[in-house]
Design brief:
195 residues; globular; six-stranded parallel beta sheet; alpha/beta; Rossmann fold
Length: 195
């Protein structure tokens, strides 16, 4: 792990949605296809009990490309929250970028727009967090903000891991449960890393 700026509280967890928390469905638009990955609800409960702030950040270029409507995206979000609530799990924030990969927006991961928006609305630091996801953009999101990037080998994670280019993840985990185990084993209550 690289050296990071010291923090005085638990780092925020920025969690990818598709392939990380729910099963990957290319350009998901049907709420009936939303299914939590194994261990996600329990993992989120463990993280909340430990005091972490949990923020979902999701690139949704299907909006710009015309594959998904905002109404469909909202129905997927509502179903996602419903499934979490049924399992007594929750997240503190949910943000998405509708722009295409080669656009000039500031919110598409790995750019920091969603982190900054969450920081304003939830009164949390946007630097020094942990970003978890199955793509390089998820890993680099936190790394660019003096945080830690974790690659999970669900969704597209295994494929990207085999052909990785660029800055490597700070940690790689086989599934979400393994991510949670690693975080809880390496972060103290005061936010300091145990390494």
């Amino acid at each position: 792990m690289g050296k990071r700026s010291p923090v005085k509280a638990l780092p925020t967890l920025f969690l990818d949605r598709d392939g990380t928390l729910i099963h990957e469905v290319n350009y998901l638009k049907d709420a009936r296809q939303v299914r939590l990955l194994p261990g996600v609800a329990q993992g989120l409960r463990r993280l909340k009990c430990a005091g972490f702030t949990l923020v979902v950040t999701s690139n949704q270029s299907g909006i710009a490309r015309g594959f998904i409507t905002p109404a469909q995206l909202e129905s997927v979000r509502a179903r996602f929250f419903q499934l979490l609530a049924q399992r007594k799990a929750l997240v503190d924030g949910y943000y998405w970028c509708p722009h295409p990969p080669h656009g000039r927006c500031l919110c598409r991961k790995p750019r920091s727009g969603m982190l900054r928006q969450a920081a304003r609305e939830l009164k949390i630091p946007w630097r020094g967090g942990i970003s978890v996801g199955d793509k390089p953009s998820d890993v680099w999101l936190a790394q660019r903000a003096e945080g830690f990037g974790v690659l999970v080998l669900s969704g597209y994670g295994r494929e990207f891991f085999k052909n990785w280019k660029g800055r490597k993840p700070d940690h790689t985990a086989k599934n979400f449960k393994a991510v949670v185990d690693w975080i809880l084993a390496h972060v103290r209550k005061d936010g300091a890393w145990i390494i």
